[in-house]
Structures are given as C-alpha cells and as structure tokens.
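Two proteins were folded this term; both appear here.
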Amino acid sequence: MIKIYKYGEVPKEKIFARVVPAMDVERIVEDIIAAVRRDGDKALFFYNEKFDRAKLTALLVSRQEIDEAVALVEPEFLRILQRAAANITKFHEKQKHNSFTINDEEGIVMGQKVIPLDRAGLYVPGGTAAYPSTVLMDAIPAKIAGCREVVMVTPPNELGKINPYILAAAHVAGVDKIFKVGGAQAVAALAYGTESVPAVDKIVGPGNAFVAEAKKQVYGKVSIDMIAGPSEILIVADAKSNPKQVAADLLSQAEHDKLASAVLVTDSGELALAVQQELEVQIPRLERQEIARASIDNNGKIIVAEDIMKAIDIANEIAPEHLELCVDNPFDYLDAVRHAGSIFMGRNCPEALGDYLAGPNHTLPTSGTAKFSSPLSVDDFVKKTQYTYFTKSALSKVAEDVAFFATKEGLTAHARSAVIRLS
C-alpha cells in the first residue's frame, strides 16, 4: 500500500528520497562495448542470440519487412499514428531556430549558423514493452532539424522480427534505416559503427539500465540526449480532485517499471486517504499489476502539504519528469513551477495524453535533472557554429586592445598576432 506522509512531520529524507537502481552494470557494459568495437557485426550477431535468442544473418530491416509490418497493423492504428505525427510535427516546428548575421559596424560581419547533425541514432526499446510512440517522439524532431540520415536500432524477437507497430511508426516518421539490435551492443554500434550499422553523431531514446550505462560510456565519442532513470509522475491535486482519476494517473507511470515513481502531493488529507484506497481497487485490475504493485508499494508516496503553493514548492524540489496540476485555474500556478520535465494542466489532461497524441515531446529529464535540463527537442539535433569577419581598417581600430588584453593573460603570441597586421 502506498505510504502517506504529512509534510513537516517526517524527515525530509523520506519526502525527497529517490529510487536508486541497485544493479551494477558498468563492467558488463564495458565488455560489450569493447567486443563491438573489436568484432563489429560479429559481436552484434552474438549478442542478438545471447540476449534475444535471435539467430540472424542480416541486421538491416528490409523494405519488404517494413511493408509487411504496415500491412499487418490495423488501419485505425495507422490513422492514429498519422494524427499523432501531425501534432508532434506542429509543436516541434515552432522550435526551429534561424541563423543570424550582425553587420551594423563598417568592416565587421559576425554571425551564427544553425547546422543539422549529419546522422542521428534512435534507440527504441522492444523488450517488456514496445513503444511506437517513442519512434515518433525521437524521429520527428530529427527530421524537422534536417538531419541527413536518421538511423534506428531496436531489438528483434526470437524469430528475428521487429514489432510491426514499431516499424509502422518508423515508416510514418520517415526513419531512413532500421537495424535489428538492442541493448548496450546497439548503443556501441551507433557510437563506433560496424560493417552494417553506421556511426552516428548523437544517440537519443530511452532504455534499460544497460542502455543507460552504455550511453554514459560512449558520451564524448558521440553526443547523447540524457541518462534516463526510472519513469516518474508527480501530481499536485486539491480537495476537489477525483480520487479515481488521480489514482489512475499515478498508475499510468507505475505500470512502466518496478522502479517507477508515482507521487501525489495534496492539501487534502481526505483526498490522500481516498486515493490510497482507490489504488488498492485499481491495481488488481491491471494487466501489469505485479509491476504496478511493486512501484506503488516501494517507491510511491502521498505527501500532505498545508496548501497548493507549498505542494508546488515540494514539486519543484523533486523536479519530476511528469507533473500534473489537478487544480482549478492551473494557469494561475504555471509561473510558480520551475522544475519539471513536462507539465499537464488541469483536471482533463492526463499524462498519457502527452505520451501519445498531444504533441509536446515525451522524452523527458528524470531523477531531478529537470532542474537543469530539458525535454528532447529540435535543438538536440542541431549544432551552432559562429563566424567573424573584419576588414584591415576595422581590425586596426581594435588590435591594440586585443594585444593589451592578451598580455594580461601572459599570451604574447596572441598579442603579436593582432598587432603584426598593422605594420
């Protein structure tokens, strides 16, 4: 049963404690990455058989396999994929930045170029749950950014097949190449390249502890989006909130993973008790009840605060991945929220709406990193470079200042490179 704490009456360690995965995977992942760097495709075939029990002779998903998958998927689901893709595109198109030029002083031109990454790599889970929504959320911003190639990796089943819903989503999102490989070995392949899998500039997408550790270890060779931890939801709810709806929203994240975190912060002791009881009614009805039960019992909590503003203060300290504001007039509180991956406003905006259809991205910072990082966006798939141009006349007006500054740092070659052009 979920625990209820009254803020101010229990140690803050209980209020703000986070789930820390106990598995030590660093050495295992090091060995996998080393094998992929050394043996290329051979290592990928080996690990496909070892971890996914799939004996393959080719890693690239063929056009025929994609067409067959699209044909298998219900037309209704394809329609929903298209609708979700349209919403995601509409939202992310607004994130595009333009290059700029400054030319307001004679003889001086400065500017910044916004340049798409050449190749983006998408990791899409395919184990205990397959997420076609992740394909849309990761691929569409990359395509909008203008990446020349978008490459996807995802684990096959025992028959060497990819989930048809994932392939259908990749088709809708315009993914260029898809490879049948998952786990840390897929991350290594994207980072270093193999005979089949091309090396990419950035790897994005969620995964298990091995995938997260692999992304951490290859960072520097390639860029990554984030080190994702277990899923999180925090709901700020007042006394008017419907306990059945609140419980359902908490469980929408609890069913992800036994390590997922579901938290309610409320100003109502009555709502806290009602939600606690309602969770016990709803958990046995879930297909993934074992996972949800472990998440709620071990990591879930209900915090009773003195008022909604204090509840938001608590939410800011936790900095959750998903934050629901189940209150009247939620826009009155929006400015008070400083740290959250994505905010869901009002009583009719369940977090699941953002997972699938609304448009904002669902690849979000976890584990408190919303205090300093952002959701996946078009910005993740571009880089910026800057340029400077001075005529000789323009340089002559500032060269002595440059040289004087350089000497204060003890860099006389810097100084000379500026003034030598004046003679």
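Next, the second protein.
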Amino acid sequence: MNSVEVKNLNFSYVQEPILKDINLEIKQGEFVAIIGSNGSGKSTLIKNLLGELKPSKGSVVIEGKPIEDYKSYKNIGYVPQMSVVSKIAFPITVREMVSLNLYEDFGFLKFAKKRHYDKVDQVLEYLGLLEYKNRPVNELSGGLAQRTMIARAMINNPKLLILDEPTAGVDEKSRQEFLKSIQKLNDDMNITIILVTHELDEVMIFTKIDATYEINDGKLIKKEVERGN
C-alpha cells in the first residue's frame, strides 16, 4: 500500500487554476522533496494533502484512506514554515508546545499529566532538545524552534511527516542540523517524509531522498537530480 496517493488532483482559487492533474505515489518510508518557484503552488499542494483545502477535481488518499477521514495530527505530522513559528508571541515553553499535540488524551480537565510530559521528554531527548524543555519557544533560535515543531509533530508517532519549507530564513548550521534530524527519523522509524524546500543542493548532501519533484506551471514533474558528494 502507498503511504500517499494523489490522483488527477486539480485546484483553483476562484477561476485561476493553480494545480493541474497532479499525480503522485509515495511508498511507506520514502523521503520525497518538492521544489518550485515562489507562487508555483507548493504550499497549495501541501494544504490539499493535509485536507485544509479541497481539490476542485481528483483525490488524496493517505494510508489507503481518503484525506477527509484524517482529522487529527495523530495520523499526519506537519511542520510549517519558519515564518509561522516566528509569530508565536506568548511565552509557551518547548515542553508545553510539544504536549499540545497530546490534547485529545488529556482527559476531562484537559490538563497534561506526568505521563504526557514523560512522553514529551522522551521525544525531546531523541531530538537533542531536552535541555531546552523549559525555554520559551519565542526565545529559541530558528533552528531550535523548528526542531521543536518536529517534536510536536512526532509526539503522536505519525507514519507521515510533511514539512513546508521548514528551513527558510534559518542559518546554515541550523539548516544542516534540521536536515540531519529528519533523516534520522526516516532511518530509525521508517517515517514517510515530504519536504518542500528551496535548498535542494543542501538537502541532497545531508539527506538520502528517494525522489525529487518540481511544480512548474501547475504540473508536478519528477526530476532527475545528481546527488552531491
């Protein structure tokens, strides 16, 4: 069974076509990169994969089920663009931010319990973030903030992780550490990864992606890319 299957997907904002007959199959455990110029429709495709937008035509199937049946991040982990994370103004800590994705399991009073925080700490330790658990997210560097968002996405053990230009505006060292972190998740847990990026050369060096696709004029085209040394 494919982890992700997109068939004849079309999407338009009002009358303007953005995505045209997109077809994509990703097997469980594959690591796929998607590139394209600004405004090409990359984020629109991600929103269709997440079920935030409904295709004008076609379908999205995750793990054999239509995307309409996936309403929880328990099934799909998502890491947004850095610009979204940087807008967090209130002083929520790393530990609290990650625990929010366990909200459905908090019980009647909707407060995190020790077992929830124990689970959070395990994920933070795995991603090298445990020492920052009590640090406000809005005081972290861009790289650490994005790794926190990976931890938040991973707390429910999803089989699919979708990342929408997560390293845009992040310094070189942090970008590289981030890429190593998601490759570790792919290697250790066989998680399917879809990474939208502008830094393909760097991605090719620090990850072992299985395929690269480019959105051009609304079409999704598989690219042949030579891996760096």
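The CA atoms of residues 89 and 159 lie 30 Å apart. The mean pLDDT is 86. These notes refer to the second protein only.
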